[in-house]
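Appendix B, record 7
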Amino acid sequence: MRALLILSVCLILSGVSHAQVTRTLSYQGVLTTGDNQPVEDGSYQFTFRLYDAVDASSAVWTEVQSVDTEWGTYGVVLGLIEPLTVVDFGNPVWLGITVDPDSEMPRQLLTSVPYARAPEPAPAAATSCAMEYQTRCGIDCVDLSADENHCGSCGFQCASGESCIDGTCQSSEVVP
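Structure tokens (predicted):
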């Protein structure tokens, strides 16, 4: 029977936009023989299953891939063939792996790495400014009608010798 030494599991939830999140899971490991030696380089048939409980009798998601190994190491991206949309990553999820012709290896609880999950919406206090006439530009609250670094819009800087007046960069030289 083959054994599996897990190198790392990374849950990758990369945001395409605020409205849509592409869900894929990157998984890397080392496939070994029963005596803990790397398998021969080659292509192996893997079946990946995700479960909502460590002892669940049926998977909520299944994907089959032909996976190449080198010195036993492999890396896959799950969810490219069978979308992961049916999986609730807000609750614990276990990964089961079968390499033909063997039975499923012990299931692994998936965990996310820092900043890999979709961001939580910011609290209202972090997105609004204290003064009604101010606009948030990055982390700063500015007055777009008077700020020379954000004149009329965030990031629009007035040239040297100009001032921001009513949201427009104007020459600050006094004409006699």
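Remarks on this record: The chain has a mean pLDDT of 80. The first strand starts at residue 3 and ends at 15.
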